[in-house]
Design a protein that fits this description.
Elements (H helix, E strand, L loop, with lengths): L5 E5 L10 H6 L5 H20 L21 E8 L2 E8 L3 E10 L7 H5 L2 H13 L5 H20 L8 E6 L4 E6 L9 E9 L2 E9 L18
């Protein structure tokens, strides 16, 4: 992440994390797994916000489940089994952030055909042959999730899996998402970074703010259905 971005990650759910009453309402009927994910992710978000000098406050959910960041802040939240994280930044420095985490396991049967383009599947086969130690299908999914999270707060429009063509570079830990739909100029080609380690896959996209850029919302934690 660039220096303008503050992030916090946790690999377990601390037992003493408290939610604001407004947040409690959001998970009042949630199963234990969902409640733990939500609570620890909010703790990560407040820790990251504190590094920007932002006082603790409820982080509620908005359109498509997006976390509602304080004014002047953009960010993204992610969680999967054994991992929770949040990344935030001042909107004056960063236009949008998208982060995602996934277990480094193969995608369930049938999912790859839904989330990928034919060209992407061909490139995945090449990656698997050259570097079989990573579940490249899951990495592609993770990269597309980060792409959506970076896209939505600016474009405020749905983005299907078929609307982004992702190329993964195995040598330097980067990927490029080329949007196949009309997109605001900063989002037409999104560069990201990836990491596969300790049973996890992480992806992150950060788009710097530029003069005259109109940021329309705060970052989303929504995901494509699978």
């Amino acid at each position: 992440m660039p220096t303008a971005v503050a992030s916090t990650e946790m690999f377990a759910d601390p037992p003493d994390v408290a939610l604001f009453p407004e947040e409690e309402l959001l998970v009042a009927r949630a199963v234990d797994k969902r409640r733990r994910e939500f609570t620890t992710a909010r703790a990560c978000a407040r820790s990251a916000l504190a590094r920007l000098g932002v006082e603790p406050a409820p982080i509620l959910t908005g359109e498509r489940g997006a976390p509602g960041w304080p004014p002047g802040v953009v960010g993204s939240i992610t969680h999967c089994a054994g991992y929770r994280a949040a990344a935030v930044a001042p909107a004056r420095a960063v236009l949008t952030v998208g982060v995602d985490a996934e277990p480094d396991d193969p995608l369930p049967d049938g999912v790859l055909a839904v989330i990928s383009l034919p060209g992407e599947r061909g490139r995945l086969a090449d990656l698997a042959g050259a570097a079989p130690g990573v579940n490249w299908d899951r990495l592609l999914f993770c990269a597309k999730e980060a792409t959506y999270k970076a896209w939505f707060p600016v474009a405020r429009r749905w983005l299907g899996f078929e609307d982004a063509d992702v190329t993964i570079d195995s040598a330097n830990g980067t990927f490029l998402a080329s949007l196949l739909v009309p997109a605001p100029a900063p989002l037409a080609r999104l560069s990201g970074r990836w990491l596969a380690r300790d049973g996890l896959i992480l992806t992150a996209i950060t788009v710097p703010a530029s003069p005259g850029t109109d940021l329309q919302g705060s970052s989303s934690n929504a995901a494509w259905p699978t």
